[in-house]
Amino acid sequence: MTKIDKTDIQNINLIIKETNLKGVSKVKIKKNNYEIEITSDSILQGNQISQVIDRPNEKNEKSESVEEIDNENIVKSPMVGVAYLSADPNSAPYIKIGQHVKAGDTLLLIEAMKTFNEIKAPRSGIIKKIVVLNSQPVEYGDTLIIFE
Asked: Closest Cα to residue 46, out of 18, 20, 78?
């Protein structure tokens, strides 16, 4: 079974809180090789996660389509640290999928050794995918953002 780290637990608790506020009855999250399902029953009974399932890669190789991404369109982590998508928990994220950014705009922050480092857009373009999660630990060279 895959271990769930502290950041995952914080994110799960945040999702549970949001689903309680919005009256959502079921949330299913897939990350790497595990899946988490949170239902209203588990929310009402003490905020417990109803299922954590270890799943090996189940994709059929024949039906899998691989999209080629140009290296110029990938923003990678220049350091080891913790990624933050906004300046503080109450602020809006710096970027959203589909947003047009200019070269030099702040995309996110990486905290390393108690210092917040701005990760800036290397070029102008449209955000296609935000790979990193808020408060997620990142390593040097990890993919953070993908441009169109």
From this structure: 20
**Could you tell me the fold of the domain covering 71-147?**
OB fold (Dihydrolipoamide Acetyltransferase, E2P) (2.40.50)
Query: Is the confidence at residue 45, as pLDDT, over 80?
Result: no
Q: What is the pLDDT of residues 99-110, one digit of tens each?
A: 999 999 999 999
Report whether pLDDT(62) > 70.
no
Show me where the domains of the chain are located: 6-54, 71-147
d(CA 140, CA 67): 23
Asked whether the CA dihedral 34, 86, 129, 97 is positive or negative, the reply is positive
In the DSSP assignment, the letter for residue 74 is E
| Other residues' Cβ atoms within 10 Å of the Cβ of residue 3 | 6
End-to-end CA distance of the chain: 35
H helix intervals, 23-133:
40-44
Model pTM score: 0.55
For 99, other C-beta atoms within 10 Å of its C-beta total 14
